[in-house]
Amino acid sequence: MADFFERYKKIKSTNIKKKKIEKPKVVVAGRSNVGKSTFVRHMTGKNVRMGKRPGVTLKINEYDMGSYILVDMPGFGFMHGVDKKVQEKIKDEIVHYIEGKRDEIATAIQIIDAGSFIEIVERWDKRGEIPIDIEMFDFLNELELNPILVVNKMDKIKKPQWDEHLNKILGTLGYKPPWNQWEFVVPAILKEKEGLDEIKYKIMERVNGFKSQKIV
Ligand SMILES: Nc1nc2c(ncn2[C@@H]2O[C@H](COP(=O)(O)OP(=O)(O)OP(=O)(O)O)[C@@H](O)[C@H]2O)c(=O)[nH]1
Ligand SMILES: [Mg+2]
């Protein structure tokens, strides 16, 4: 994965083609089990497969939302009970999809799990590796996709600790506190539809911005 990210980081904004697209895509990315399919199910009303077992979504699924196409990605990163080769194939597919369709994508939604994010990031740091979630977020920003960061499963964090926790998460991504100065962040409890309206609003802002871009 790191190789891919490094390669695409070299893409200059001037190289990003602009195309007139009727229905741009909005991609939903994130580590396995963070709640991507839960989100897509709420958005579409469709019976998207979800599960307690990570790796439930193994292929890329597209849903027509009228003014845009919502794309449910498989989870990236380590998954219990999923073959290493399959994991590699999944990451390659995600990166190739986003890179190949860059000029059709209005924005990306990266979902993280509020409960395990810090712990996972620290574990990678200790091994001297750049955490995959951070690489993904940087990658989406490098491609100028103006990603929305959904911090899901906030029900796992006690309410009085929300601000401190969100500041810490944003800190690991290189953003200074307070977290709420950053427009792209949405704390959420997607299983209870909390945060859903705010995400929808931000999607539409980005979709409308994409459609009104000047084509040169
Ligand atoms: N505590 C809590 N659990 C949630 C929340 N949202 C989703 N979940 C649960 O998290 C688990 C995984 O949800 P999915 O939507 O299948 O996750 P996914 O990201 O699509 O997973 P993959 O398809 O494996 O990549 C399910 O058991 C959900 O019910 C939430 O806000 N809080
Ligand atoms: Mg899924």
In short:
With 216 residues, the chain is of the alpha/beta class.
Give keywords.
binds magnesium ion, 216 residues, binds guanosine-5'-triphosphate, G_ENGB_dom, cell division, 6-stranded mixed sheet, alpha/beta
What's the helix-strand series? Answer: HEHEEHEHHEHEH
Number of domains: 1
* CATH homology superfamily: P-loop containing nucleotide triphosphate hydrolases
User: What are the distinct ligands in this entry?
Assistant: guanosine-5'-triphosphate, magnesium ion
Distance between the termini: 32 Å
Largest sheet: 6 strands, mixed
Assign a percent range to the helix content: 25-40%
Shape: globular
**How many helices does DSSP assign?**
7
| CATH domain class | Alpha Beta
Number of strands: 6
Compute the CA-based radius of gyration: 17 Å
Mean pLDDT: 86
Pfam families: MMR_HSR1
Function: Necessary for normal cell division and for the maintenance of normal septation.
InterPro entries: G_ENGB_dom, GTP-bd, GTP-bd_ribosome_bio_YsxC, P-loop_NTPase
Protein name: Probable GTP-binding protein EngB
Task: Describe the model.
The protein has helices at residues 2-9, 36-44, 84-100, 117-126, 132-142, 162-172, 196-211; strands spanning 25-29, 61-64, 69-72, 105-113, 148-152, 185-187. With 216 residues, it is an alpha/beta fold. 34% of the residues are buried. It is globular and about 45 Å long. Strands 2-3-1-4-5-6 form a 6-stranded mixed sheet, sandwiched between helices. A hairpin with a 4-residue loop joins β2 (61-64) and β3. The chain has 7 helices and 6 strands. It has a single domain (22-215), classed as P-loop containing nucleotide triphosphate hydrolases (Rossmann fold), CATH 3.40.50.300. The structure holds guanosine-5'-triphosphate (GTP) and magnesium ion (MG). The site of magnesium ion has 4 residues, from α2. Belongs to the TRAFAC class TrmE-Era-EngA-EngB-Septin-like GTPase superfamily. EngB GTPase family. This is Probable GTP-binding protein EngB.
